[in-house]
Amino acid sequence: MRLVICDTVDYVAEWSAKYVAKRINDFQPNQNKYFVLGLPTGSTPLGMYKKLIEYYQQGKVSFKYVKTFNMDEYVDLKRDHPTSYHYYMYNNFFKHIDIDRENVHLLDGNAEDLEKECNDYERKIKEAGGIELFIGGMPMPSISTLLSPDVTTFNYFFLM
C-alpha cells in the first residue's frame, strides 16, 4: 500500500488522472486487449474526470480500447434523471472522450430483477477479463482510492 497525502483537491485530481492515463498507456490496449476500468461517481472523482478529458483532448490518452464498469446506480431512478449515475457519467465524462458506448457498463437500477442484474453485471466483468484498475470512493470527505487488478489490496489513498 502507498499513501499519498495531498494538499488540494486539484492535486488529487491531477495525480489521479495522470496515474489512470499512465496505466492505460502502459497497458497498450488494442482491439484484442482492452483495459478494464472500474469507476465511481460523486464529487471526489469529478476533478479527475475533467483532467482525463483534458488529457484525451491533448492526445495524451485514448479510451478507444477501454471498457468501464461503474460501481453503483440508484434503484427506480430513470437514466436521464439529473441525479442518476448514468446521467452523471455521460455528462461529466463519457460524452467527452472517444470511448465506444458499447464498452460503457452501468448497472440498470430499473431492472425487473435486481439480483439478476447484479449477477449479470459480475459476469460481464469476468467476461471482460476482470478489472485492471478500480477507482473507488470512500465515505469520508476528499478521499479516493485506486485499486489494482486483484481489487483486494489498496494501492493508493488520496487524503485531503
From TrEMBL:
Subunit structure: Homohexamer.
GO biological process, one term: carbohydrate metabolic process
Catalysis performed (reactions): alpha-D-glucosamine 6-phosphate + H2O = beta-D-fructose 6-phosphate + NH4(+)
Annotated protein name in UniProt: Glucosamine-6-phosphate deaminase
Enzyme class name: hydrolase
Keywords, in A-Z order: Coiled coil, Hydrolase
Gene3D superfamilies named among the record's database cross-references: 3.40.50.1360
SUPFAM superfamilies linked: NagB/RpiA/CoA transferase-like
Pathway the protein takes part in: Nucleotide-sugar biosynthesis; UDP-N-acetyl-alpha-D-glucosamine biosynthesis; alpha-D-glucosamine 6-phosphate from D-fructose 6-phosphate: step 1/1
Function: Catalyzes the reversible conversion of alpha-D-glucosamine 6-phosphate (GlcN-6P) into beta-D-fructose 6-phosphate (Fru-6P) and ammonium ion, a regulatory reaction step in de novo uridine diphosphate-N-acetyl-alpha-D-glucosamine (UDP-GlcNAc) biosynthesis via hexosamine pathway.
Protein source organism: Ooceraea biroi
EC number: 3.5.99.6
CDD domains: GlcN6P_deaminase
Matching Pfam families: Glucosamine_iso
Keyword Lyase: no
GO molecular function: glucosamine-6-phosphate deaminase activity; identical protein binding
Family annotation (PANTHER family): GLUCOSAMINE-6-PHOSPHATE ISOMERASE
Keyword presence, Lipid metabolism: no
Residue ranges of coiled coil: 104-131
TM regions (residue ranges): none
Domain Glucosamine/galactosamine-6-phosphate isomerase: 12-130
GO CC list: cytoplasm
Assigned protein family: Belongs to the glucosamine/galactosamine-6-phosphate isomerase family.
Alphabetical list of InterPro entries matching this protein: Glc/Gal-6P_isomerase, Glucosamine6P_isomerase, NagB/RpiA_transferase-like
